[in-house]
Amino acid sequence: MNLQNKKIRIAVQKGGRLKAPSLEFLKSIGLEFESKETGLTSQCLNADVEILYVRNCDIPQYVKYGVADYGIVGENVLIERKSNLKIEKRLGFGKCRLVIAVPERSNIKRIKDLREERIATSYPNTLKGFLRRNGINASMIEINGSVELCPSLNLSDAVCDITQTGRTLEENNLKIITEIMDSEAVLISNPSLNNGKILF
Amino acid sequence: MKKIEPTILKGTRDFGPLDMAKRNLVMDKIRRVFERFGYDPIETPIICPADTILGKYGEEGDRLTYNFEDAGGRRIALPFDLTVPFARFFAANFRDLPLPFKRYQIQRVWRAEKPQKGRLREFYQCDIDVIGTKNLIAEAEISKVIVEVFKELEINFTIKVNSRRLMNAVLKDFGVEEEKIIEVIRIIDKILKIGEQAVIEELKLLQITNPEEILRLLSQDKALDETLEKFSKYDTSEIKEFLENCRNLGVEEYVEFDPSLARGLDYYTGIIYEVVSKDCEFGTICAGGRYDNLCGLFCDEDFSGVGVAFGFERIMLLLEQLKKFEDIKLNSKVLVTLFDEESKEDALKIYSTLVEAGINSEIYFEADKLGKQMKYADKKRIPFVLIRGSEEKEKDEVVVKSMATGKQKSIPLKQLITYLSGYYESTK
Questions:
Q1: Which residues of B are less than 8 Å from A139 in CB distance?
Q2: CATH of A96-182, one of 3.30.450.40, 3.80.30.20, 3.40.190.10, 3.90.1300.10
């Protein structure tokens, strides 16, 4: 049997807040490897395991395509990508919340006040789900980063973004009106591939 | 001057914008599924030489076929269905066509029937056929197309299937003479309509010796295996291979082997289908099967084909009954109001930007009172109305009024396109 086929690949964040705790977790389960600041892969010294460093939002795709057997990713990213992947384990780090926040003095106080308003977000799919569940029609302004800036520039009336401590929101004079989901880092796998079935 | 009555013929209909919005929505969904499976469209003429249509459907069919003499003294007929025009088209063109040939056809057909609910003189059929292969992959593919169409339309359904070959073998085995077989099948076909007892009576009249036993054998058992077991002395390889193909295409749960399924048309030779809605008693919403020699009417070559027709008008009635059109929209998304004569230039520019950005929009043609313009938007189900008075103009903003909630929102004019294209309708 080809050794390549036996190798287990785990995709983790290339950079960002989940990288260090993800590697720590892998070490805690007994894997020995050199943590790299640069480079795209690490080989484990004591097991046939390879660690892939990839962009956060690509991790679900790597697992979905079967090129990685496992991935460590924020649950919020998993839900945004609508990946039908299995959560093997909740990892207890990288905790954050996806919330809707508005300027301190906004007239928007409750969820239903969001009707017809502009909501800036990097999580359009999750936001869509939230709007659908609440029967709200609103305009989604897709922005890839620094979403908190949008209301002060009159680009949006509200934001839908992740927050850990709430500090960035506060610094931008935004207050939370509702929480969409709690998130933490999760270990994911592809159930359809593990069963030996080919999905696509 | 005496005015002409603006009337239409009985059994035909006018379709207003709202009807057409619904019909196009459904037709587009059906068409997209057909195209997903590699079917390409064809269209055939409405007026045809009568001899290419008449004499193909039996006496009853001929009686229901519209035919007349044109000014040049030619006998003309209007298509009764899409299968015969397709067979004619294929016979005339098969040398230039890729074989096997897959096509879909969505067209009007005409039947001179007594009009009643769900039965019109002019209506649409949506057909798919595969011709030029006998492989049962084609049959299974048709099942998959049916599944995808009704999933797309959110209709719960069952595809009843049977093998005409198996039914013929059974009837022959029971001593039914060759020339009586189609008559017997026509009678069995009526079982749901007239009931088992009446079928038995009719079969007795035809001097069939043991109709009860035939019906018992042809009845469906709870489990597929039990049903198949009953036919173990007959050749069931066709139905088995077909079901196996369906399993591999992931549609087995929708397909139900019903050995009593007959289909009255006599040109079927193999697998036959009939799709019924599980949501309510509605009769057949799609039907068809394998035919071996339809083109033989038009050419010497032998081509086997398989296909189904979706009953578009019945599907529309069913969807209407299931209230699937509650939120149907017409085309315009935005009405640019005309505030006054002075704002005309401004309004036209905004209008132009919107349509160039691909947002379905229209401008109101008169500087009428806003209330009147709103009423127009309401009547056309336009979700957004744009208002730009002098105040908004000064701030370079525009007011977007949502007709659903009545909420008015000022946004910078430069963000108008972003606002509208990012707008998410949770109720859609």
A1: 418-420, 422-424
A2: 3.40.190.10
